[in-house]
Design brief:
Blueprint lengths: L2 E2 L5 E6 L5 H12 L18 H8 L8 H13 L1 E2 L7 E5 L18 E8 L2 H12 L3 H8 L5 E2 L14 E2 L3 H10 L5 E5 H6 L1 H11 L6 H10 L2 H11 L20 H4 L2 H17 L5
Parallel strand pairs: 2-4, 2-5, 5-8
Antiparallel strand pairs: 1-3, 6-7
Helix pairs in contact: 1-9, 2-3, 4-5, 6-12, 8-9
């Protein structure tokens, strides 16, 4: 297998969980696939925390390693990508916060990174969506969002820990700040709410910022093909391979400001008290 160590070919599709990452990947799929989307066959290259990718790159079974040892391998694995003349860019989904391993090296290698697209969503709306995803209560979801040491795919209790490595999230504010201030490569922030309210303007904007060039008519077609109602309809008929076993439906409602009907005042206060500084910066107000 030919390896290319020089080209900056990775575009990271980064977000805190339940912030619109899958919707954006569906849009990219339609963009690259003549307006067609199969939610179980997205054109992106998987998730950063994939144990399978790590094994393919290193020939090591990461389930036999500690989390610290795995984090040492990750930047090495993503620094060397298979040469593929048909694919100019690699799109990897990532929920990990931007952090460093025990060798003080960022887990995300800048040498192979073109840029990151960071999708941010109002944490008040994330709460109920995250609760649905985890089959937990909204209070439990808020507790996770407020935990500065929060992780996904904890090795000791996650049913899918064979497929993914542990993902350090921090709390919601910490996740946002890690991506906004940590990387030495370009990070292009886009609000989920802006994509909903003016999709053509903001999808076009983020594509341009990321150096992804497509004509306007193809962007419009991709936006139409990746409408939330269409993705939800596909899941209802075909199922969705990325849905957790305990989650009834991955695509729930996809709306903005639904927190006003779903959260009580104590839940709103718990999120606002911890995250108001970052929320205000991003234009999220009560």
């Amino acid at each position: 297998m030919k390896i290319n160590k020089s080209k900056k070919r990775i575009i990271w599709l980064a977000s805190y969980p339940k912030s619109g990452n899958t919707w954006f990947r569906a849009f990219l799929t339609a963009l690259h696939n003549d307006g067609k989307v199969d939610i179980n066959d997205l054109v992106t290259n998987g998730i950063f925390s994939s144990r399978l990718f790590l094994k393919d790159q290193t020939d090591l079974d990461s389930t036999l390693l500690t989390n610290e040892e795995t984090k040492i391998l990750l930047p090495e694995a993503y620094s060397c990508l298979p040469e593929n003349n048909l694919q100019e860019k690699f799109y990897f989904k990532i929920h990990d916060a931007y952090s460093s391993n025990t060798q003080n090296r960022p887990i995300i290698p800048s040498e192979s990174t073109h840029c990151a697209i960071y999708i941010v969503r109002n944490p008040l709306d994330i709460a109920a969506s995250l609760a649905n995803h985890n089959s937990s209560t909204i209070d439990e979801a808020i507790e996770l969002m407020n935990n500065k040491k929060a992780c996904f795919a904890l090795q000791e209790n996650n049913l899918n820990n064979y497929s993914q490595t542990e993902q350090l999230l921090f709390d919601w504010s910490g996740h946002v700040n890690s991506w906004m201030s940590g990387p030495d490569f370009p990070v292009h922030l886009i609000r989920y709410e802006d994509l909903i309210n003016d999709p053509l303007r903001f999808f076009t904007y983020i594509l341009k910022k990321s150096g992804i060039v497509f004509p306007k008519d193809k962007i419009i077609r991709a936006i139409d093909a990746s409408q939330f109602t269409k993705l939800k309809g596909q899941e209802k008929i075909l199922g969705f391979s990325e849905k957790t076993l305990q989650c009834k439906s991955f695509f729930r409602n996809g709306k903005a400001n639904n927190w006003q009907q779903e959260l009580n005042k104590h839940q709103v206060s718990a999120i606002w008290t911890q995250h108001s500084e970052v929320m205000k910066t991003l234009g999220y107000m009560l």
